[in-house]
Write a structure and sequence with these properties.
Blueprint: H1 2-5, H2 7-25, H3 30-103, E1 111-119, E2 127-130, E3 143-146, E4 150-158, E5 163-167, E6 174-179, E7 185-190, E8 196-202, E9 212-215, E10 227-236, E11 242-249, E12 258-262
Antiparallel strand pairs: 1-2, 1-12, 2-5, 3-4, 3-12, 4-5, 6-7, 6-9, 7-8, 8-11, 9-10, 10-11
Helix pairs in contact: 2-3
C-alpha cells in the first residue's frame, strides 16, 4: 500500500538520480548544476523519509526488547520478594523458638520443641496440629506446654511426623489440678474453647479468688506443678455437694506458635 501511494515520487527520484549520475560522468556542465538544484528538495525529502522509516522500525524493535526486559525484571523481583518473605518468616520463627527455649523448663523434662502448623478450623480452639510425631518419640497422652511450664493440652493423635494436641479448653479434656496456695484439689475441664472450670472441690476445702491452679500429678499422666491458670469466681455445684471455680487460662491459645512436648 505504501508502494502504490508513493510510486510517482519514487519514479521521479530514480529519474533524477539517473540524470545526476550521467551528468557527473561528464564533469562540470550547466545541466549538472540545474539537475542538482531541481533535485535537491526531492533528494532531501527522500533521505529524511527513508531515515525516518528505518528509525521507526528500530524504535518498534527497542520497545519489544524493553518489554521483554521489563517482564524479566518483574519476574525476578517477585521471586526475590517471595524469598525475602520466606526468610523473614523463618527468622521470626527462630527468634520465637529461642525465646521459648530460654524459658522452657528443660532441666526438669525431656522436651521436644515443635511448631504449630494448624488449629481447629471451627474456631472453638479445641485442638492444634504440630510438625512433630512418632519419628521423634511423641506418643498419645504426652503433655504439651509452652514457656514457663504452662500446660496447653495433651497429644491425642500421633502420626509419623505430625501430631494433634487436644487443648485443655476442649470439653473432653480432664486434668487433675490443685490450688497452689491451699493445695485444694479438683478436676479442671474445658468449656468449649471459652475457658476452664474447676469442679469436684470438697465443701470442706478452702479456695480463694486469685489462687494459682497447677497440675496435681494425680493419675501419673501429667507431671505435678504445671501452670493452668488463676481462679476467678467461686460458686456451688447444682447439687450443692461441691464447690466450683472459674479459671482464667495462663496461655493465650489463639496465638500459639511453638509448643513443647514432655516426652519424659
Amino acid at each position: 500500500m505504501f508502494f502504490r501511494k508513493n510510486i510517482k515520487h519514487i519514479v521521479v527520484v530514480f529519474v533524477l538520480l539517473a540524470v545526476i549520475f550521467i551528468s557527473f560522468r561528464f564533469g562540470d556542465n550547466p545541466v549538472k548544476g540545474f539537475v542538482l538544484g531541481v533535485s535537491s528538495p526531492f533528494l532531501k525529502t527522500f533521505r529524511i523519509f527513508s531515515g525516518g522509516i528505518s528509525g521507526f522500525f528500530d524504535f518498534l524493535g527497542s520497545i519489544g526488547e524493553l518489554k521483554k526486559e521489563n517482564e524479566k525484571l518483574i519476574s525476578e523481583n517477585q521471586s526475590l520478594l517471595v524469598e525475602n518473605n520466606f526468610l523473614k518468616g523463618a527468622e521470626k520463627e527462630n527468634i520465637s523458638l529461642r525465646q521459648q527455649l530460654d524459658l522452657a523448663p528443660r532441666k526438669n523434662f525431656d522436651l521436644e520443641a515443635s511448631f504449630v502448623i494448624g488449629q481447629d478450623p471451627q474456631g472453638f480452639g479445641n485442638y492444634l496440629l504440630i510438625d512433630k510425631g512418632e519419628d521423634v518419640g511423641i506418643r498419645v497422652g504426652m503433655p504439651a506446654i509452652i514457656s514457663d511450664g504452662i500446660l496447653v493440652g495433651r497429644v491425642s493423635e500421633a502420626h509419623k511426623n505430625t501430631s494433634k494436641i487436644t487443648l485443655i479448653t476442649d470439653p473432653e479434656s480432664v486434668i487433675n489440678a490443685e490450688s497452689q496456695e491451699t493445695r485444694t484439689k479438683g478436676i479442671v475441664r474445658g468449656e468449649y474453647g471459652l475457658g476452664l472450670k474447676m469442679d469436684m472441690i470438697s465443701q470442706a476445702d478452702i479456695i480463694n479468688d486469685g489462687d494459682a491452679v497447677v497440675t496435681s500429678g494425680l493419675g501419673g499422666e501429667v507431671p505435678r506443678g504445671l501452670t493452668i491458670g488463676k481462679i476467678s469466681g467461686i460458686s456451688q455445684s447444682a447439687d450443692k455437694l461441691f464447690q466450683e471455680a472459674s479459671i482464667i487460662p495462663a496461655a493465650d491459645f489463639s496465638s500459639l506458635r511453638v509448643v513443647f512436648i514432655i516426652k519424659k
